[in-house]
């Protein structure tokens, strides 16, 4: 059974077809990248998977269960996790507290208990471990709003890790980060349990080609190619539509 399967997803904004009959499968443990030019519909596809948008047609199967009608929070509880955006972090909380909140949310103890009574020791220990693995140990006690943008982006990823995803969706996790931090991202992904599937949307081609075992290329809402990194590099239509001046 696939970790994630998209079946004939279709989405329009007004008259603009942004997701055109897209089908895509991620096996358990997949390292799959979704690439394509600006406006190709990559973020829209992520939003259809998370439930932020509802497709006009098609299905989203998570480990065999059709979740297309499920609300976002239910999908997260089932292990479908997207990297948080900086704007979703609690900016007056420290990096460690943001991670600890995600750990306690996952445990079912949630925000209100944590705020009233502080975090339990095992929650803090786990959050510290995640912060260390993400290279955030030094800034763990710093409120997120005082962190550099790049560090805030790494906290986003740490929060997603803390939710223990079964399928992790990463929308441009490296945008705005120096290349040195790509190592931190790749290192953190390496530490995920082997069967966790990852779908990465990214414009940074060196990062994509280091990360991915499978690549899907989207252009104008349509899948134009799918294959291994070598197959994609050599695909003439992909070079014409996108990679020509990038790889
Ligand atoms: N809420 C919306 N309403 C109307 N049009 C939208 C909306 N969101 C996205 N679009 C349009 O849908 C198309 C696909 O956008 P999307 O953001 O999914 O592309 P993308 O591949 O993620 O682009 P980028 O690489 O630049 O982030 C674009 O033409 C965009 O302008």
UniProtKB/TrEMBL annotation:
GO molecular function term, any single one: ATP hydrolysis activity
Cellular-component GO terms for this entry: plasma membrane
SUPFAM superfamilies xrefs: P-loop containing nucleoside triphosphate hydrolases
Record keywords, A-Z: ATP-binding, Nucleotide-binding, Plasmid, Transport
Domain ABC transporter: 4-245
Domain of life: Bacteria
Membrane-crossing segments per the record: none
Keyword Nucleotide-binding: yes
PANTHER family (alphabetical): ABC TRANSPORTER ATP-BINDING PROTEIN, CONSERVED COMPONENT OF ABC TRANSPORTER FOR NATURAL AMINO ACIDS-RELATED
Family designation: Belongs to the ABC transporter superfamily.
Protein name (Swiss-Prot/TrEMBL): ABC transporter ATP-binding protein
Species the sequence originates in: Shinella sumterensis
